[in-house]
Amino acid sequence: MKISLGPILYYWEREAIFKFYEEIAATAVDIVYLGETVCSRRHNLRHDDWLSVAEKLASAGKEVVLSSQALLESESDLKILRKLADNDQFSVEANDMGAVHLLTGRLPFVIGPHINVYNSPALSLLAETGAKRWVMPVEMSRGMLHKMQLEKPANMETEVFAFGRLPLAFSARCFTARHHNLPKDDCQFRCLDYANGLTLNTREGQPFLVLNGIQTQSASVYNLINELVEMNEMGVNIVRISPQAWHTTKIIEQFWQSLNNPDTAQKCMQQLAKWMPDKGCDGYWHGKAGLEQSTGITAQ
C-alpha cells in the first residue's frame, strides 16, 4: 500500500505552509494532495502558489493531486475550479459533483471523501466519467468496504482516510466567526488562531467536535494504523494521513514503519498517541459509533 497526505484542512500562515511542504518532500509519503478545500476566504496561497508547491513535490518524486473545494458558493469559487480542471499537468481530486462534471473526459481524476459513494453502481458510473481512484467516505465501515472491494470496477484504486480528525460536515455558515461574534464576510480570518481547529466541548466539558471555519470535524483523531494488515488483505491501495499542525512527518514515519513491518503496529500506535491533539477513535471502521476507540490507547 502507498501513503498519501491529504490537503491541509486548516488555515495556516503562508510561510508555515511552504515550510511544511519542504519537510514533506523529504518524507516517505507517496502521494500529496494540495489546495484549499474548506473556505474560499483562505487566500494565503493562490492558484499559482499551489502549482509551484506541486512542481517542487513532483520533482521530489511525489505524485501530486490538486484538491477542489468541497462547498462552492460563488462565481469566484467556480473560476478556481475551472483553473483546476483546465490544468493538464496534475490530477485533480473532485470534492463535489460540479467538479466531476468539469473533469469528465479530461485527465483521470480522484473521487474525494466529500462525495458520498456507498454502492458499486455509483462507483461504476463515476469510473465511466474518468475517475481512477475513490476515497472511501469516512463513515463507511470495513464490512461495507469489503463488499465494495468485491464489486468495484477493475483498475479503480481505493484510498482510505486512516489518520486525522474526521471531516464530518460543511455549512454555509462559519462557526469560527460566529464563536467570535463576527459575520462570515468579516471574519478577520480568526481561523489563523487555531492551527488544529477550535475544540467544542460538551456541557460536561468533554471534547466533542472541532470547528474549522465552515467545516465541522470530530474532536477525536481517527487512527487506523492497527488496521493496515486487514486493509492490505482487502486490496486497499492507499492510506491517507490528514495533516495536523505538529508532528505530521513523525506520523508519516510511523505509518511507513507499520506498513513495512506489521509487527510494530501496536508500538507505532502508542507513539502516535503522544502526538495526537486529542484521544483516538476508530468506531466507524468497526461499524460502531464514530467516537469509539477499540484499543483503549489515548492521547498523552
UniProtKB/TrEMBL annotation:
<dbReference type="InterPro" id="IPR051454">
    <property type="entry name" value="RNA/ubiquinone_mod_enzymes"/>
</dbReference>
<dbReference type="GO" id="GO:0051539">
    <property type="term" value="F:4 iron, 4 sulfur cluster binding"/>
</dbReference>
<feature type="binding site">
    <location>
        <position position="187"/>
    </location>
    <ligand>
        <name>[4Fe-4S] cluster</name>
    </ligand>
</feature>
<dbReference type="GO" id="GO:0006744">
    <property type="term" value="P:ubiquinone biosynthetic process"/>
</dbReference>
<keyword id="KW-0479">Metal-binding</keyword>
<keyword id="KW-0004">4Fe-4S</keyword>
<keyword id="KW-0408">Iron</keyword>
<comment type="subunit">
    <text>Forms a heterodimer with UbiU.</text>
</comment>
<comment type="similarity">
    <text>Belongs to the peptidase U32 family. UbiV subfamily.</text>
</comment>
<comment type="pathway">
    <text>Cofactor biosynthesis; ubiquinone biosynthesis.</text>
</comment>
<dbReference type="GO" id="GO:0008233">
    <property type="term" value="F:peptidase activity"/>
</dbReference>
<comment type="function">
    <text>Required for O(2)-independent ubiquinone (coenzyme Q) biosynthesis. Together with UbiU, is essential for the C6-hydroxylation reaction in the oxygen-independent ubiquinone biosynthesis pathway.</text>
</comment>
<dbReference type="InterPro" id="IPR001539">
    <property type="entry name" value="Peptidase_U32"/>
</dbReference>
<dbReference type="Pfam" id="PF01136">
    <property type="entry name" value="Peptidase_U32"/>
</dbReference>
<feature type="binding site">
    <location>
        <position position="174"/>
    </location>
    <ligand>
        <name>[4Fe-4S] cluster</name>
    </ligand>
</feature>
<dbReference type="InterPro" id="IPR043693">
    <property type="entry name" value="UbiV"/>
</dbReference>
<keyword id="KW-0411">Iron-sulfur</keyword>
<feature type="binding site">
    <location>
        <position position="191"/>
    </location>
    <ligand>
        <name>[4Fe-4S] cluster</name>
    </ligand>
</feature>
<dbReference type="GO" id="GO:0046872">
    <property type="term" value="F:metal ion binding"/>
</dbReference>
<keyword id="KW-0378">Hydrolase</keyword>
<feature type="binding site">
    <location>
        <position position="39"/>
    </location>
    <ligand>
        <name>[4Fe-4S] cluster</name>
    </ligand>
</feature>
<dbReference type="GO" id="GO:0006508">
    <property type="term" value="P:proteolysis"/>
</dbReference>
<protein>
    <recommendedName>
        <fullName>Ubiquinone biosynthesis protein UbiV</fullName>
    </recommendedName>
</protein>
<keyword id="KW-0645">Protease</keyword>
<keyword id="KW-0831">Ubiquinone biosynthesis</keyword>
